[in-house]
Amino acid sequence: MPTILILSLAIIFLTACLAPTLVRYLGDRAGWLLAFAPFSAFIMLVAQAGMIEAGEALVYQVDWFSALDTSFSLRLDGLSLLMALLVTGIGGFIVIYAGGYMHGHPQLGRFYLYLLAFMGAMLGLVVSDNLILVFVFWELTSISSYLLIGFNHEQKETRWKALQALLVTGLGAMAMLAGFILIGTVTGSYSLAEITRMGDLLQGCPWFTAIVILILGGAFTKSAQVPFHFWLPNAMAGPTPVSAYLHSATMVKAGIYLMARLNPSFAGSGLWEYTLAIFGSLTLLLAMFLGLFQKDVKSILAYTTLGVLGVLTMLLGIGSEYAIKAMVVFLIGHALYKATLFMVVGAIDHETGTRDVTLLRGLRKLMPISALAGGLAALSMSGLPPFFGFIGKELIYKAGVKLNGAELIFLVVALVGNLIMMGLALKAGVGPFFGKPNHAALPKKPHEAPLAMWLGPIVLSVAGLVIGIIPFWVTEFMVAPALAAIRGAEIAHLDLALWNLVRPNLPLLLSGVTVLGGFFVFLNRARFWAVADRVLATIRPYGAEAMYGRIFNATIWFSKAQTRWLQTGRLHDYVFLIVMTTVGFLTWAIVSFGGLNFSVDWAAYDLLIICLVIIMIIAALVAVTGRSYITVLVALGVVGFGVALIFAYYGAPDLAITQLLVETLTVVLFMFVVLRLPPLKTISGRFTRLRDGIMATAFGGLITILLLKAVNIQFDHAISDQLAAMSYPEAKGKNVVNVILVDFRALDTMGEIVVVTVAALGIAALVKSGLKGKGKRS
């Protein structure tokens, strides 16, 4: 049933709208009711697993901007189903968890509105089959995540970090949109299903490099790859339910999803594969290095999330069957254990009042359920059997040992990253619950979290254990279809049985090295904490975040400077900017339209006309330099009357008479005004006058060039011949000019008459008001 797709979206968005009202009446208990929306969507989507497993896809489509060949098209295939189940399944537990974590918060209804709106946007993103629709939902996730990260907006630091996430991901989205448009231009389609079958066409086009760079600009910023990684740890400023949701299964995975979705089109290209592998490796190593020195449990989890995003990107770049298989398994495993760990850390923070790992230990007896969930998730994250995380790690090593030559560096990177990640997992998920208790140093007396806060962690952590023991439960309807969608080929059979992986071979040996290295990191964690402040203070000024700060401040400085320069409050400057901008655009148009390619037939100009033009130029110069009103008015009058003479010379007596009347009237009216004005004064400096002279010369010269080019361009027969031929037969007029004015251009003429009439009425009103004022004063 295709309508299930739109129904799933509608349920979540509608529930988001109802959330504030439900919270108002039900309080914290509203979370249990609101969770029905994502869980309902989860059930409806999982019911389609059989059809997806059979290789079919669920499609829902309605017309939308057909002029742009864009439709509101939703499509559920293996990859979409996997992501949609993570978004809705984990999302349901997050909604319940938020009710306990934010107990008594006065803006809980608003929080649920933002959270469910983000959930709907994320679900829409992963089921969209149209690139433009993907961009719309992509931006909705950016905006809603900005509201979630900055939920505690009373704090300046929180606002700064939320804005940072929005700017980084938003700028990436702009690049991504440009890439989408290029893809649509090359393929003639915005449908993802069609584009993924046009890999040869895309890779053969001359814009392929630009497309890859632009698309990765959006994907890398969203999935926090180096050098855009800094926003993700800073996004921990949001409430813990936000961190648990955005950084486990949703927002940061959007970039990974986009790269995986487009992989069939770009796979095989060295540019695509090596870029992903190299940047993924750098992200993994940098995240693990920085994670070693963190003391905040949420920060530790944030850097491990960065590391996992690096692993997923690197695996996509390696691109082999084992690598893609490992990527899908790692994606599922990470969503389960990372959501659990974030929620457990939130429970610890909620019940002890701190997230400082140097203070947290020995909590297992007071928080036994949280300790169980955190321990299971940490072991899965460590890649120990029989957890699902072990399968993912083994597949990574199986993919790594298949590499050759210089590519083996990626295996080394994976080994180093995995062993540090294990140490960090133990530090965040096990460390707070074991060791000698230190409850007296905690801000609050610790106790177990309420049901709403441990239900999700315990279910998800146990799920990581169960599907690790019996992986075939998810292999057939989640992993294999997703693998087929990413590789663009059918997967005949997929065997992820645990007992097939636990065999004496090189990957298992590497797993042993990982375990030993992970315990070494965990046992020596205090050594890293001891030098943490010094190390971080040394590298921070040279990091990407410092560079972001410099660019941000430079942008603010430039904005203020250009505002001061452009918005001076003086009409004189505004006119100058407008005219010079017009000159710039016109110059560009002239250059792109053949340059100064025109000819002047000087023989066509009579000596009388040339002398007249010279007189008009001299009069214009006198008008500019004149020091009395009379001189200026006379000079302007000479120019106006010269124009009238030109009209008369070239056989347009009606225009000449009109010009003559206008000039006479203008001069007379000016005379009445200027006689009441103070004497002329020189206000502008020499530089300003020189600048204005250059502007006037440039604009006048440009208009002259445009007229000369227009005279030389004749696209069709002259319209004057046609108007002359039509004058008597159609308008019964022997005077062509009159016919043009009152028949062919009747509306223009009427408009001109209206303008003149309105001006006359305005003048009459001013004169009348002046007479009344004079009468009162007298």
TrEMBL record:
<feature type="transmembrane region" description="Helical">
    <location>
        <begin position="506"/>
        <end position="524"/>
    </location>
</feature>
<feature type="domain" description="MrpA C-terminal/MbhD">
    <location>
        <begin position="614"/>
        <end position="678"/>
    </location>
</feature>
<protein>
    <submittedName>
        <fullName>Monovalent cation/H+ antiporter subunit A</fullName>
    </submittedName>
</protein>
<feature type="transmembrane region" description="Helical">
    <location>
        <begin position="79"/>
        <end position="99"/>
    </location>
</feature>
<dbReference type="Pfam" id="PF00662">
    <property type="entry name" value="Proton_antipo_N"/>
</dbReference>
<feature type="domain" description="MrpA C-terminal/MbhE">
    <location>
        <begin position="689"/>
        <end position="768"/>
    </location>
</feature>
<keyword id="KW-0406">Ion transport</keyword>
<feature type="transmembrane region" description="Helical">
    <location>
        <begin position="753"/>
        <end position="771"/>
    </location>
</feature>
<keyword id="KW-1133">Transmembrane helix</keyword>
<keyword id="KW-0813">Transport</keyword>
<keyword id="KW-0472">Membrane</keyword>
<dbReference type="InterPro" id="IPR042106">
    <property type="entry name" value="Nuo/plastoQ_OxRdtase_6_NuoJ"/>
</dbReference>
<dbReference type="InterPro" id="IPR001516">
    <property type="entry name" value="Proton_antipo_N"/>
</dbReference>
<feature type="transmembrane region" description="Helical">
    <location>
        <begin position="326"/>
        <end position="348"/>
    </location>
</feature>
<feature type="transmembrane region" description="Helical">
    <location>
        <begin position="6"/>
        <end position="26"/>
    </location>
</feature>
<dbReference type="InterPro" id="IPR046806">
    <property type="entry name" value="MrpA_C/MbhE"/>
</dbReference>
<feature type="transmembrane region" description="Helical">
    <location>
        <begin position="369"/>
        <end position="388"/>
    </location>
</feature>
<feature type="transmembrane region" description="Helical">
    <location>
        <begin position="163"/>
        <end position="187"/>
    </location>
</feature>
<dbReference type="Pfam" id="PF20501">
    <property type="entry name" value="MbhE"/>
</dbReference>
<feature type="transmembrane region" description="Helical">
    <location>
        <begin position="300"/>
        <end position="320"/>
    </location>
</feature>
<feature type="transmembrane region" description="Helical">
    <location>
        <begin position="696"/>
        <end position="715"/>
    </location>
</feature>
<feature type="domain" description="NADH-Ubiquinone oxidoreductase (complex I) chain 5 N-terminal">
    <location>
        <begin position="67"/>
        <end position="112"/>
    </location>
</feature>
<dbReference type="Pfam" id="PF00361">
    <property type="entry name" value="Proton_antipo_M"/>
</dbReference>
<keyword id="KW-0812">Transmembrane</keyword>
<feature type="transmembrane region" description="Helical">
    <location>
        <begin position="574"/>
        <end position="596"/>
    </location>
</feature>
<dbReference type="InterPro" id="IPR001750">
    <property type="entry name" value="ND/Mrp_TM"/>
</dbReference>
<feature type="transmembrane region" description="Helical">
    <location>
        <begin position="408"/>
        <end position="430"/>
    </location>
</feature>
<feature type="transmembrane region" description="Helical">
    <location>
        <begin position="629"/>
        <end position="650"/>
    </location>
</feature>
<keyword id="KW-1003">Cell membrane</keyword>
<feature type="transmembrane region" description="Helical">
    <location>
        <begin position="133"/>
        <end position="151"/>
    </location>
</feature>
<feature type="transmembrane region" description="Helical">
    <location>
        <begin position="207"/>
        <end position="232"/>
    </location>
</feature>
<feature type="domain" description="NADH:quinone oxidoreductase/Mrp antiporter transmembrane">
    <location>
        <begin position="128"/>
        <end position="413"/>
    </location>
</feature>
<dbReference type="Pfam" id="PF13244">
    <property type="entry name" value="MbhD"/>
</dbReference>
<dbReference type="InterPro" id="IPR025383">
    <property type="entry name" value="MrpA_C/MbhD"/>
</dbReference>
<feature type="transmembrane region" description="Helical">
    <location>
        <begin position="656"/>
        <end position="675"/>
    </location>
</feature>
<feature type="transmembrane region" description="Helical">
    <location>
        <begin position="33"/>
        <end position="59"/>
    </location>
</feature>
<keyword id="KW-0050">Antiport</keyword>
<feature type="transmembrane region" description="Helical">
    <location>
        <begin position="602"/>
        <end position="622"/>
    </location>
</feature>
<feature type="transmembrane region" description="Helical">
    <location>
        <begin position="274"/>
        <end position="293"/>
    </location>
</feature>
<feature type="transmembrane region" description="Helical">
    <location>
        <begin position="451"/>
        <end position="474"/>
    </location>
</feature>
<feature type="transmembrane region" description="Helical">
    <location>
        <begin position="111"/>
        <end position="127"/>
    </location>
</feature>
<dbReference type="InterPro" id="IPR050616">
    <property type="entry name" value="CPA3_Na-H_Antiporter_A"/>
</dbReference>
